[in-house]
């Protein structure tokens, strides 16, 4: 059994969590070991960091925010992701490197070189096998978020911030950006508009088109 690290990325409200769960069930039906995770979080330390960085009552500098996200990533990789990959599992993660470049890079204004250096400490050069980048207009995604209830600290950021983030995710789908950021691994764009089942079918098609999988069992 071959291990793989598959990441779901995209702007707020793109449906990453829902689609990750659907894909986890798809892998499970194939008889494969699946581990599902989210960033920040997934470990006791990561969950504490998540509480801090998403608490709408807290304020922090942009570099503190970035380093907290990356610290959670370091703990997750060493404590959960690498052991799962060593067991031959498929690991599905809700957010990873692209979110740092989008939110703390394009959104907050921290340079790519600084983020790349910090991420390298956290990942120790572990790159995703595949990143599924869900695309959805920023306005539509934020409208979905509003239906969830009280927004967290990141969701409360102003419209200009979310526009910068959304534009960054669009750029991440280009060959030029991907060639300049090999640490992010291969990235496949997926249209996130439409019913959940339709988007799931697109994701499965993108997955099968991007990587070889063993025959169904």
What does it look like?
The chain has helices at residues 16-29, 44-54, 62-86, 97-107, 112-123, 138-146, 159-172, 175-180, 196-210, and strands spanning 4-9, 34-38, 90-94, 130-135, 187-191. By secondary structure, it is α/β, with parallel strands linked by helices. The protein has one domain (4-210): Rossmann fold (3-Layer(aba) Sandwich). The mean pLDDT is 93.
Low-confidence stretches: none
What is the terminal separation in angstroms? 12 Å
CATH-assigned homologous superfamily: P-loop containing nucleotide triphosphate hydrolases
CATH architecture, by name, is: 3-Layer(aba) Sandwich
Task: Please work out how many helical segments DSSP would assign.
Answer: 9
Could you state the order of secondary-structure elements as H and E? Answer: EHEHHEHHEHHHEH
Counting helices, strands and paired strands, the structural category is: alpha/beta
List keywords for this structure.
globular, five-stranded parallel beta sheet, alpha/beta, 12% strand, 217 residues, Rossmann fold
Topology of helices and strands:
Layout lengths: L3 E6 L6 H14 L4 E5 L5 H11 L7 H25 L3 E5 L2 H11 L4 H12 L6 E6 L2 H9 L12 H14 L2 H6 L6 E5 L4 H15 L7
Parallel strand pairs: 1-3, 1-4, 2-3, 4-5
Helix pairs in contact: 1-9, 2-3, 3-5, 4-7
Summarize the structure.
This protein is of the alpha/beta class and 217 residues long. It has helices at 16-29, 44-54, 62-86, 97-107, 112-123, 138-146, 159-172, 175-180, 196-210; strands at residues 4-9, 34-38, 90-94, 130-135, 187-191.
